[in-house]
Amino acid sequence: MTAIAPDPVLERARVAVSVAFVVNGLAFASWLSRVPAVRDALELTPGGLGLLLLALSVGAVVALPLSGLVVHRLGAARTVLAGGSAVALGLLVAALGLSTGSVSVTAVGLLLTGFGTGSWDVAMNVEAAAVEHGLERHLMPRFHAGFSVGTVGGALVGAACAAGQVPVAPQLVVTALVVVLVLVRAVRSFSPVFGGAQMRPSGLGRAWREPRTLVIGLMVMAFALAEGIANDWLALALVDGHGTSQAVGAAGFGLFVATMTVVRLVGGNLLDRHGRPLVLRCAAALAVGGVLLVVLAEALPLVLVGTVLWGCGAALGFPVGMSAAADDAQRAPMRVSVVSSIAYTAFLAGPPLVGLLGEAFGVLDSLLVVLVALVVGGLTAGATRKPV
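Given the sequence above, the corresponding structure tokens read:
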């Protein structure tokens, strides 16, 4: 029996969306892998650093509730390109702030970066969900693996720059140029039929009143908190809490995102075999063990094992939530926008929360707050079950 060839338009869109996820991760990690150097350059306390990182989350939270409407109006391709351009501009402004030692200018840059990231994130997830439906394959974890591949690349670049004592500012300038150049080419292969612009509007207010959508948002928020706190604070926790070098701290962050990448690559098979709720509950349990090892273990090898377990557990919450929110393709833009808006409150609350706890207990011990989020994630995983 001859296999039916995949739709070439959808296949091109699949590759283009994968590229968008990779570049998004690269831009994200290019900044976060250098957090210890940023802290030193601006002479910030843990609380001050938490407030600076808050600017990134505020920008994203402002953009996310509007992103579903924007995708309906402009389509995914234009929204991704506009968001990526805002990210690039934000990175350039942040580089200027770091070069001049200005916390306020750096914060403005991160605000712009967060705003662009929020729009970019919703648009590429809507396109990804539509391609997933069109090809009838569980692809969302692999798309998010692309994001993780980008973060691995960004973390490796950050580690190399830290080891070579390269300032953060020129690293951000180069990243901004890469973002714009790659996205201009990639979005040409997005299909407007599957990009959101041709979908029937479902009503943003209605999406905010749907119990399943709201619970999925809570689940994603919980896993996003577990992922986001590691992204923001793991490198610094390894440096300050376990006495490692900045290069080892950046490499530890790279190990975390590398683990997430591997799990996302195989996540589709796990979801096919065991279903969304069971996989997410097991993931939450793994992450609990990982966080405990990172905080409580004294030997560096055990700490790194904990980093791997934490990455395994945090990997699938966000992509599974995006897939669940987009189970009905016609209502995907608004529901993905709502779920993303709820989820990103984790990135809004995480940096200052850990920063404030770090002032009192140290950054390493403050990571234990992740355990609360993981319990919530496990308890709400049932909402991701596909409607009958």
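The two ends are 31 Å apart (CA to CA). Try to locate this feature in the token string yourself.
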